[in-house]
Structures are given as structure tokens and as C-alpha cells.
Amino acid sequence: MFPEFEVVPAVDMQDGQVVQLVGGERGTGKTYGDPVEAAQRWVDAGARTLHLVDLDGAFEGERQNADAIDAVLDAVGADVDVQLGGGIRTVEDAVSLLDRGVDRVILGTAAIENPDIVEAISAEHPGSVLVSLDAKDGEVVVAGWTEGTGLDPARAAQRYAELGAGGILFTDVDVEGQLEGVRTEPVRNVVEAVDIPVVASGGVATIDDVLELADTGAAAVVVGSALYQGAFTLEAAADAVEEHR
């Protein structure tokens, strides 16, 4: 998983369309068209990994955009890694997605409510679980970022690493989707707490933000709004990362 730092485009789906939310709140998003077209655009631009999220699934607790996700998987093929989250609540659902061709499943609410699910899925597909720790005001939140848990992100990351998680997806909800820059300290705290890859997300507005996150020791960064709004191109970000190594 991520042999070197990587910029990962997000394809967040709501009602079968690509959407970028602000702070994870419903009704704040901009729509960017067909998921397959978006995915193909990023693959053509050099993406090695795609980050797919079923936003309806995250809010409703069960997957809602299965057809769109299947279409993306068929379109990009096996040469591109796909990590998928949103509404995955059971071992059976996760395993079926991994058998279908998803490379990593992202578990948020399910992992918080039932930590053993991480161990169970990992037993069948080692390294395939990316535990999503979304932090708001320094606290892990779940259910589409609407419910607090009282958990500290770094301590929670340690717990899931012990349970066999292949990596941690850390999202800084306080800056997510706002295109106002990143906060490196929360990311670094999680990176330093575990020996598994940490994927950072939230707030990226410039290529400098990407490089700052690379310097935290994160394995990758998920970028959504900045790419869709043309703040920079995926190619330019990848070139900057290569020069920064």
C-alpha cells in the first residue's frame, strides 16, 4: 500500500453524481457530473489510486450508489487501486466488495461500533482495511461526521493497528472541503502513533499543502475540491511531489 507518497483523487458520490461537500454537511456540496467520467479523467491524468466514497451510504448507514461504483470498477480495471468507503457495515459486505475488485475497504462507523470487524475482514483479506478516523475539534466523529465518539484520533489509530488494519485514513473535518489549507499537527500526531500507512485528507488548496502533508510522514493524501475546481492539476501535484522527494 503506497510504496511512495501519492496524491489520490477523490470520487465522492451522492445520488449517482460526483459531489464535494464542505465540512461533510449535506446541502453544501457542488456537483461534478458522472462518476465514471471523473474516475477516467483522473486515471488518464496519472492516478494510481482512486478514493471512492458513497456519501449516501455514509449518511444512511447502507450503501446507496452500488451501480455507480460497479461502473467505475468496470471502467478503470485492475491496473488502478480502488479504495471504497461509505455504508460498509458488515464483514460480508466488505468481503464481497474485496472479492469484486475493490483493493481496500474504508470502515468508519462500523469500526468504531464494532472494532472486531477490522480483525475479521483482515483475516480473510490481509492489509485490505483502511480505518477512517474523521476528526472534528480533536474528536473522532462518525455517521457522516454527525456524531461524536469521545475518541482521540492517535489513540484510536493505535488500537486499530493492533487489530490488523492495513492503514488509517485521517480526515481533518474542520478544514475539509474549504480550500483554506491544511493543518499538519493533527496528521503528524496520527502518523507518529502507528507503524502502518496514514492517508491524510482535508483542506488541501495548493500544491504546497500537498508537500506539507508529505513532510508529516503521511503515505498519501486524498484531494477532492482543489482538483475539481482547478486549483492545480493532478499532473502538477505529482511532479511537485517527485521533485520534493
Describe this structure as you would to a colleague.
By secondary structure, this protein is of the alpha/beta class. The protein has a single domain (6-244), classed as TIM Barrel, CATH 3.20.20.70. Helix content is 39%, strand content 27%. It contains 11 helices and 12 strands. An 8-stranded parallel β-barrel has the order 1-4-5-6-7-10-11-12, surrounded by 8 helices. α7 packs parallel to α8 (184-193) and α9 packs parallel to α11 (234-244). The longest helix has 11 residues, at 66-76. The radius of gyration is 16 Å and the shape is globular. The model has no long low-confidence stretch (mean pLDDT 91).
Chain-wise SSE layout:
Layout: E1 6-14, E2 17-22, E3 25-31, H1 35-44, E4 49-54, H2 55-60, H3 66-76, E5 81-85, H4 91-100, E6 104-107, H5 109-113, H6 116-124, E7 129-136, E8 139-142, E9 147-148, H7 153-162, E10 167-172, H8 184-193, E11 198-201, H9 207-215, E12 220-223, H10 225-228, H11 234-244
Parallel strand pairs: 1-4, 1-12, 4-5, 5-6, 6-7, 7-10, 10-11, 11-12
Antiparallel strand pairs: 1-2, 2-3, 7-8, 8-9
Helix pairs in contact: 1-3, 7-8, 9-11
